[in-house]
Amino acid sequence: MTGKERARLKSLASTEDTIIHVGKSGITPAVVASVDAALAARELVKGRVLESSMLTAREACEQLSEACGAEPVQAIGTKFVLYRKKKD
Fold it and tell me: 56-63, long-range: CB within 8 Å, 24+ apart, which pairs?
């Protein structure tokens, strides 16, 4: 992904609602399934790591991107953004 593409996705994500929440259980199969479904529907999803989680936003972003075959776009503070192009 080029810098321009990443910048465009960051700007699009700024208006998106946070729909993924990673809690104290960390990255569970249920979280991976919900991220996968959200990416299939939207392509671009924003997530948040709760304070009770032992993961940082960057760690959660990397683990979820590997598990779902997505591109990590951004991880700042407690929020992260993932992108996966639709298959059709």
Answer: 60/22, 60/26, 60/27, 63/27
Domain hosting residue 34, numbered range: 3-83
> pLDDT at position 77, please?
93
Average pLDDT value for the chain: 92
* pLDDT value at 61 more than 90: yes
Q: What is the CATH number of the domain that holds 61?
A: 3.30.110.60
Number of domains in the chain: 1
Environment class of 60 (CB within 10 Å of its CB; exposed 0-12, middle 13-18, buried 19+): buried
Residue 88 placed within a domain? no
State pTM to two decimals. Answer: 0.90
